[in-house]
Design brief:
By secondary structure, this protein is an alpha/beta fold. The chain has a single domain, classed as TIM Barrel (Alpha-Beta Barrel), CATH 3.20.20.80. It has twelve helices and ten strands. Strands 1-2-3-4-5-6-7-8 form an eight-stranded parallel barrel, surrounded by five helices. Strands 9-10 form a two-stranded antiparallel ribbon. A hairpin with a 4-residue loop joins strand 9 and strand 10.
Length: about 325
């Protein structure tokens, strides 16, 4: 077993050296500014804010800060607010709304991650839409060039289909280069292909950047976390989680994420994890607490999905945190 592990390490280190990652473990590991984060999902990721039942409110950011989170992630469907043809201008009203939420976060000393979410057309027609995404980032980099270090960019959420990891790496490199013209020190999260899965993260070979963060999403096993969700394939209900085999599988996944962090010398951020609201809350909380504590044990930063959407931690009807989920995240 030791010889196999050594061989794997040597192969991985050699590959990393060829593809831009540092091969010298003496290179200092970057320390992520993110610790505990929550997604403001189901708001600006919809075609219009409020369509999916949630609108971001200033008082929600106060609640999030007071609960003990240091970061919010703001998923935005920029593609429906951007011209279809060059110069691909973003609608001013959408930029203004994002600026408003950014101002709220900065005033509360919260980090805020601005990402490109649900750019579906890119995945199926990458040749056409890559220039459009680059134009979107050209505008975002300019718009937020004077923002504080609390503002963090995330290039692309869950690319897949035509957006292979090699193609995603290349696109990330171009976008990062553009951002660096205005912001040499801006923290930037680099999107991961195959829906943000761990296998694509392991395949990713980005150039080393001391202010870049790698990302993955964890919803495994999907049959448990998304059971009953109308948009998911996992429609069977009554699935349970928590056996010894389940715990071993989750630990193995998180070990793999930690290994990438060590190899690349860049932080790994679990940008989404959570369980659908229809699952019994005690089971949701058990999975959430286990994943959260195991991530923290490996120095992986994380962002729960989500605040008030369909995997919610906060009930907007009761105007209160769901106690079991809040405790699972923060106790």
């Amino acid at each position: 077993m030791a010889l196999i592990s050594l061989a794997f390490c040597l192969a991985a280190c050699s590959l990393a050296a060829e593809d831009g990652a540092p091969s010298d473990p003496a290179i200092e590991m970057s320390i992520s500014p993110i610790s505990r984060c929550i997604n403001l999902g189901s708001a600006l990721e919809a075609s219009y804010e409020g369509e999916w039942g949630y609108t971001v409110r200033q008082e929600d950011l106060v609640r999030i800060r007071d609960a003990g989170f240091d970061t919010v992630r703001l998923p935005v469907r920029w593609s429906v607010h951007t011209q279809e043809t060059a110069p691909y201008r973003i609608r001013a009203a959408k930029l203004d709304r994002v600026r408003e939420i950014v101002d709220w976060a900065e005033a509360l000393d919260l980090n805020i991650i601005i990402n490109v979410h649900h750019y579906d057309a890119l995945n199926w027609d990458a040749d056409t839409h890559e220039p459009r995404l680059e134009a979107i980032w050209d505008q975002l980099a300019t718009a937020f060039a004077g923002a504080t270090e609390k503002v963090i960019f995330e290039t692309l959420n869950e690319p897949h289909a035509e957006m292979t990891q090699a193609r995603t790496d290349a696109l990330n490199k171009r976008i990062l280069s553009r951002i660096r013209r205005d912001d040499p020190d801006r923290w930037v999260i680099l999107g991961t292909a195959n829906w943000g899965n761990l296998d694509a993260l392991a395949q990713s070979r980005p150039d080393y950047d001391p202010r870049a963060i790698l990302t993955t999403h964890i919803y495994s096993p999907f049959e448990f976390t998304h059971q009953g969700a109308p948009w998911a394939a996992a429609k069977r209900t009554g699935v349970t989680w928590g056996s010894a085999a389940d715990l071993r599988a989750m630990r193995a996944d998180l070990d793999a994420a930690s290994e990438v962090q060590t190899r690349q010398r860049m932080p790994v951020f679990v940008g989404e994890f959570g369980v659908y609201e229809a699952v019994p809350v005690a089971e949701r909380a058990r999975w959430t607490r286990f994943v959260r504590t195991e991530m923290e044990a490996r120095d992986l930063s994380w962002c729960y999905w989500d605040f008030a959407g369909s995997l919610k931690a906060f009930d907007t009807e009761a105007e209160a945190w769901i106690p079991e989920i809040k405790a699972a995240l923060l106790d």
